[in-house]
């Protein structure tokens, strides 16, 4: 039995702080293994343990980052519960007597020799690595491509129980309610989409990111196919899965294009995947997967953001005096407070890491974080972007640089909400100079770092299911979609819906109501309408329309 020991001094101070709060025993990282003679390269044995053993003779902080990539560097800053489950699973693997192979001569720039060998080949568009076909599934929200798409897109969004959660008794009303809300909201949304050219650019940008990621992976010796699966519009996740099956992918890395995890975004897409995986024999038996749940803490992502901020600051008359204004998409407060959504914590840590990086460059501007895009009058994460802009103007701030921190593509919320609405509000409120950092899009450092994230996750693909009987019986391997969902919002807590009745003008006095009771009353009315064929909706001719 050999023992390899790594001490914590290889980590940076913030890394160490985050690590010290994790459940991993990492004052030193001790890994037991079988025969030390067998320390050779081959991390990619089918069903091999998920050991991230890119061991190096020199254990620099970067080197250690590689070794521990997904396990020590990325996981410690995640939700404590998730850390625990990942740590448990990983340590369980370490205890296994199964021999495995590692290399002692990997360099930081070529971690993949452990994963892939010289026999790697690409034949007629088929990407094969040691008889494995690697796929990467990028998950995103999707957006309407034409104005006609807007209402059905909104229907899909509001029909998602991770966006509107009805009390169990009223679940059957999810679709009628989604129809109603989407029809009511469509005119306002269409105006927004019309003003940015008649549709969302999200699909084009995500396709371009997929293409660049594929190139970057090939450059790093990992030939993989990259698929795009949208939650609410084309190409739907189901369409991507069909392609994945057609291509007979055997190892899939699921990568939500949201840097920070939220139940309402990555969580919703994973929930959908869980259902698809459960019902499909090929996916359950022939393909293994792993999920990279969030990646806001990755060095490459942080550096790419800092680069863009630094560049935009230079466009101001007095760069030092500009306040950096991080504006993230909001979620209803109950997601965080009642369902345990880690979104807010991850967002705050992300902002801290970017500011830390800027500090290293001697950029010490003041900064703030606020949340945008709330829908309906229930409480969302605060402070709200619009109110914060007004407050800052009143406090005498003259220059603001907006950073769309939760988005990696341009879309309606950057191009219309930030660039038009918030800019107008800022200038009207007394801000004199307004700037906006572009979304990362295909920025090369960012794409390259995503490719590294994929590569670092490869040894984990499907690995956790092997050790755990319960997981083996389950169609979704432990430590992947299912485990993530169990950790975040496992009970799928009932929460107030983000949209409530009065937004559509039923009664002005409803603004004083509690969101939940208003929703329940609305649902009762809707229920009565369905049962009795009489009521307000029939009176206004809305209901027959809903039935079509
Ligand atoms: C981190 C990103 C996002 C979170 C969190 C999120 C939560 C969330 N969103 C809505 C309602 C709407 N979102 C809409 C568009 C939209 N949302 C995101 C991202 C997050 N949403 C993106 C990238 C987009 C744009 C897609 C595009 O068309 O380019 C819309 C539609 C636009 C509109 O009518 O305003 C709605 C509605 C809720 C309710 C929610 C959390 C519960
Ligand atoms: Fe949204």
Automatic annotation (TrEMBL):
Q: Which reaction does it catalyse?
A: heme b + 2 H(+) = protoporphyrin IX + Fe(2+)
* Keywords linked to the UniProt accession: Chloroplast, Heme biosynthesis, Iron, Lyase, Plastid, Porphyrin biosynthesis
PROSITE patterns, per the entry: FERROCHELATASE (PS00534)
Q: Where does this protein reside within or beyond the cell?
A: Plastid, Chloroplast
Keyword NAD, does the record have it? no
List the PANTHER family hit by this protein, alphabetically: FERROCHELATASE, FERROCHELATASE, MITOCHONDRIAL
Task: Please state what the protein is called.
Answer: Ferrochelatase
